Amino acid sequence: MSLPLVFIGGNKGGVGKSLASMALLDYWLTNDSKKPVFLIETDTSNPDVAKAYGETVPHFLPQISEREGWIDMVNELDGQRKAAVVCNLAAQTNGHWEQFGATLLTALREMKRPATCLWMINRQRDSLELLAEFREMAPGVKIHVLRNAYFGDERKFELYNGSEIRKEIEAAGGKSVTFPELADRITDQLYTHRLTLAKAAGDAMPLGSRSEVHRWRSACADVFQQIGL
pLDDT tens digits for 18-49? Predict the structure, then answer.
């Protein structure tokens, strides 16, 4: 049975892709320490996830603005068939998917490795438009939508909640879930000090901050369990 290959997307900066990638890495490392985990970080200009987890999990930073980078990424995935993979997709990658994504999708079919995408959204219309665009370019990739609670509770995502794209995602077996908010002071410290969530929950932060990290990790685990990861 193939281990999970999960893309964290959104195509926009600031929607929570890097934080969700860190949360998923932490979830796998915490709940199944025997499962090898691998990170693909495509945000090579600001690789926050690789900076935080680079000493914890093996990782690779492909240049996906170039065709050669997609070939390199396929080769890395081929060598990581026994690992669960998180691939953090940088902002503005839909255009690269349109140009080069067929190389990856063809390889995944040959490897018989199913892929999942967790698509992060805020409350703006372009989040939905970019999601619809990605869905067209990535046939065969199961998509779950994560409403980032940093931008408000579930009820405030009115555009998505009543949209046709939501109906299409869920009809195809995808789920719509709410990704929990983490206090800004914690997020800032994670990025500034390049902390894993395990370190943040240990002795790297004061008690109040550690308590918030524990709460958030538990809430993230609930989300990933709903999705089936």
Answer: 999 999 999 999 987 678 999 999 999 899 99
Say whether 180 sits in a helix, a strand or coil. Answer: coil
CB 123 within 8 A of CB 157: yes
Sheet with 84-88: list strands edge to edge. Answer: 59-60, 37-41, 84-88, 5-9, 116-121, 142-148, 176-179
Query: Residue 162, class by beta-carbon neighbours within 10 Å (0-12 exposed, 13-18 middle, 19+ buried)?
Result: exposed
Nearest to 85 by CA among 8, 180, 164: 8
Integer Cα distance of 175 and 137 in angstroms: 19
Show the CA angle centred on residue 136, arms to residues 131 and 137, nearest 5°: 95
Q: Which residue has 């997609």 as its token pair?
A: 70
Taking only the tens place, the pLDDT of each residue in 66-76 is 999 999 999 99
